[in-house]
Amino acid sequence: MIVIRQLTVFAAVMHMASAAYPFHAARATTKNTRKARMASKLLAGATETENSQLGRGRQLEQAEPDLSIYEVKFQQCQFVKAYDDELAQEEESKTVLGVKRFVVFRLCPANNCASCAYDFGEYIVDMDTYLEAATESLLEDREGMCGLCEEVCYADDDATKNAGADYVDCDSCVDYCAYFENMDDNGKYMESYLMAECQQVYESDDGTEIYAGAICSNSGATIKIGAFSDQYCSQTKNSINIENYLENGLAFDDDILAKVVDVDSCVSCIAQEWEIPEQNDQNDQNDEEEEVEVNEMCQTLYEASAKCESKYGFDNWWKDYEDYANQYVQEDLVCDFISSLGNGNYDEDGEIILSGSSSSGGGLGATGGQKFALTVFVLSTVGLAVYGASLHSQLTKGGKADLSSQGGAMA
Questions:
Q1: Nearest-5° angle of CA 404, CA 410, CA 411?
Q2: Is 325 left (phi over 0), alpha (psi -120 to 50) or beta?
Q3: Beta strands in 204-286 (DSSP E)
Q4: How far apart are CA 171 and CA 176, in angstroms?
């Protein structure tokens, strides 16, 4: 069944995420000899895929791709409802299904980011990580640009103005930077990204609560601030305009949040230096090539994400990468899961869409057989999750576990 396939792929991706990506955890908690032994066992017990066959006999060593030649391009935001252990243990919770928030993005060649048609990688990461990394990077760039704008555009000498003309446009940056500098004083606007993390904004006398948090649009093409009825921001209240509950009648300014999810633009992975080079520095750059520094946004997103790279020809997608074994053998599942999000298999609230309608009700809905299969799958997933957590605990605490003796292949 297509639905079971979607959920199986989702479970595999979530297992990788819940284990905090084993290839990173192993690097931090085990010795080099144990790393090699663990990777060997993982590969030995895994079902062979096209990727594992291609990589047979090659040694995985520590290496990082050169991210400086790529740019980040937002693709999609999507909520997915799945079993949540915390909700299951909470007595007052009305559901055991929590909302998992994902963002799909690409690393595109800097000289081809607009079309991003080849030699790129596609990735999926939790929305909180994406928003935090992206907003911090864009805020640093805005602060750096505005600092340089003030230095150049308000300079007393023409030499400074002329030297800075290649780095800032005074006709636009002066008003732009003044707007944000005075935002707290004018009392009309607040930056919407500040409400991206789930937080309570209202409570009525009868105990009704309203929470604000980031939410995906219907198409997944944008991220906005929406209203929720619970502290986990899992139950949306689409009929409520969250701006009506901001203090002092404030309205949102979406400058940063809009740039974070702009599907028509790309964010360079090169760390920006918002200063005018000294003349001697300019001469030195002409004599020798300066080492390029990668910004924290690209570094963070690449390390935290599940990766779909080989099918798109991404350079250095797996070779020479120590502790990459788990990601490597499951890459096809990651690619399938990303594809399922792009095919419209989930609605805005994260419900699986069956036969053109949401599984939560309405339209044709799910058949009895589908509901039974979904129930069996959820129960099976819970059991696998408990077993996976136990096995991961044994590995990280130094316990010996021979995966090949467990009688099963890796998903």
A1: 165
A2: alpha
A3: 209-216, 223-228, 251-253, 267-268
A4: 9
Q: What letters, b where the CB count within 10 A reaches 16 and e where it falls short, cover 131-166?
A: bbbbbbbbebbbeebbebbbbbbeeeeeeebebbee
Q: Per residue in 54-64, pLDDT tens?
A: 444 444 444 56
Residue 293 DSSP symbol: P
Give whole-number Cα distances, 35 to 16, 238, 392, 396, in Å. Answer: 17, 48, 13, 11
Do 247 and 255 form a contact (C-beta atoms < 8 A)? Answer: no
pLDDT per residue as tens digits for the range 312-341: 888 655 555 555 667 777 888 999 999 988
Section 308-313 average pLDDT: 87
- In DSSP terms, 76 is beta-bridged to 104
Closest CA to 218 of 104, 355, 350: 350
Category of 228 on φ-ψ map: left (φ > 0), alpha (ψ -120 to 50) or beta: beta
Q: How far apart are CA 54 and CA 51, in angstroms?
A: 5
Q: Which residue has the tokens 């047979």?
A: 56
What whole-number distance in Å separates Cα of residue 190 and Cα of residue 198? 16
Three-state secondary-structure class, residue 104: strand
Which structure tokens are listed for 65? 């791709």
Q: Contact at 8 Å (CB) between 326 and 42?
A: yes
Task: Find all residues with CB under 8 Å of 327, minimum gap 6, and list them.
Answer: 16, 21, 23, 306, 307, 318, 334
Q: CA nearest 72: which of 317, 262, 258, 224?
A: 262
